[in-house]
Design goal:
By secondary structure, the chain is an alpha/beta fold. It folds into 3 domains: 128 residues, Nucleotidyltransferase, domain 5 (2-Layer Sandwich), CATH 3.30.420; 133 residues, Orthogonal Bundle (Helix Hairpins); 145 residues, no CATH class. The chain contains 19 helices and 7 strands. The strands form 2 sheets. A 5-stranded mixed sheet has the order 3-2-1-4-5. It has a two-stranded antiparallel ribbon with strand order 6-7. Helix 9 packs across helix 10 and helix 13 packs across helix 15. It starts with 9 loop residues before the first strand and ends with a helix.
């Protein structure tokens, strides 16, 4: 759907909030703007949408708002006569400041600005289209898994910091604080005093349950523990630290179980997705990165006009600013973090599996770029390649792409292994 051809019967600006939403409505044939407050309740949203349908005879009504996901979007997207136009909050903030340099802000004013933005600049806005249910479900699970991984990292940092204060030897004896083995160990022996009282028999049983094969691991650990000196014997430090260590380990076990459950749901959804073949065989795209790339592109092949649009939306494309004789380049601040991380991680993983990706990365490094800048440049290149595959529904072929690079005498061909060497 081309935004220039949309014939909207009315323009609506909706500034959403937790409890109520400010609404500004202007009919396309009227200069008058109407203001109202809408409760954040499914019944209220449905009744309001139905009232618009009756009032404008089922014609399309544009709704401009600051989000592309969330309860309001999910509720309004169920009504086909409503066309949603999400805008970036930073875009609205800049639009607001153009008329209110004092930076004053309230919900009705923002709703009116959104209404004006849609009414006067519709051609610059893109109507929102939801991906198919399978893609949206997969994306939701992947994003939640990422949040759980972030929680695991945050809790692990807290656990490490607490151990340094009360039981620093555990950082060597219990292993990696991000692993279940460490948490199980600390739930059994959360302090040096507890470990010093442990028997070799109990430690050996603990090791057998977790298939630890490190020689006489239990005997060595008992000897080291009994010879160790506590960092402090102050109960005012040890008592709260012991309680916190136990709590953190239990939280980490719950989070780890959640990550595992999400992975178990992601795998069959990805395997059954119609676009799976486009992303499962990519060099370096394993069971996590492959699904992330799939949802990064989505199921709507009209969403991005070209590869550059996706490069910009994902934040991989840099921003160039010019003023007079000055010109500088920096990375894109207003971008989707999930997409940027997905492409960045894929670029990193592809180095070990793709000859041209490795050569391109080396070429960027030789030109003086930092490691992260070189990976972003590689991700930028990968998006162009994958966009073509996605549009044509053709799986990526490394050999075919290498042949095309040699045919066009690309600069990185000199860094590629010769065909006979690769064989």
């Amino acid at each position: 759907m081309n935004t220039e051809t949309l014939n909207l019967a009315a323009y609506v600006g909706l500034d959403w909030a937790d409890q109520a939403h400010a609404v500004c409505l202007q009919a396309a044939t009227s200069p008058t703007r109407e203001h109202a407050m809408l409760a954040q309740q499914p019944e209220a949203l449905a009744a309001w949408a139905q009232a618009l349908r009756v009032r404008f005879g089922g014609q399309l009504v544009g709704v401009c708002l600051e989000q592309s996901r969330g309860p309001v979007v999910y509720a309004l997207s169920a009504h086909p006569w409503l066309v949603l136009f999400p805008v970036n909050p930073k875009s609205l903030a800049a639009f607001r400041q153009a008329f209110h340099p004092s930076r004053c802000k309230d919900d009705p004013t923002d709703a009116e600005l959104l209404c004006e933005l849609l009414g006067k600049h519709q051609a610059q806005l893109t109507p929102w289209r939801a991906d198919d249910p399978a893609t949206r479900t997969l994306r939701g699970l992947l994003e939640q898994r990422d949040k759980l991984v972030d929680d695991r990292t945050r809790l692990s940092h807290r656990l490490r910091a607490t151990l340094k204060q009360a039981f620093p030897q555990a950082l060597d004896w219990a292993g990696d604080v991000t692993k279940p083995l460490c948490w199980a160990f600390l739930l059994q022996w959360p302090s040096l005093a507890a470990l010093q009282q442990a028997s070799v028999t109990k430690l050996r049983a603990f090791g057998r349950e977790r298939r630890l094969r490190r020689g006489d691991w239990a005997g060595t650990l008992v000897a080291q523990a009994r010879a160790a000196q506590p960092l402090t014997t102050d109960e005012a430090v040890l008592t709260p630290a012991l309680a916190f260590i136990t709590t953190l380990c239990r939280q980490l076990q719950v989070v780890e179980a959640g990550i595992t459950a999400h992975v178990q749901q992601i795998a069959p959804l990805f395997a059954a997705h119609p676009d799976r073949a486009l992303f499962t065989g990519l060099p370096g795209a394993g069971p996590v990165v492959g699904p992330r790339l799939l949802v990064a592109f989505g199921s709507d092949r009209t969403r991005y006009a070209d590869a550059q649009a996706l490069q910009q939306y994902s934040g991989i494309a840099p921003v160039v600013e010019r003023s007079g004789r000055q010109c500088w380049t920096h990375w894109r601040w207003a971008a989707a973090p999930f997409l940027r991380q997905s492409f960045h991680e894929f670029a990193q993983h592809s180095l070990a599996r793709s000859a041209w990706a490795r050569a391109y990365y080396q070429l960027q490094r030789q030109r003086g770029k930092s490691r992260t800048a070189a990976l972003r440049a590689l991700a930028f290149k990968w998006i162009r390649v994958l966009y073509r595959c996605w549009q044509s529904r053709t799986p990526y072929d490394e050999a075919r792409y290498l042949a095309a690079l040699r045919q066009h005498h690309a600069p990185l061909v000199a860094l590629l292994p010769q065909p006979q060497e690769a064989a």
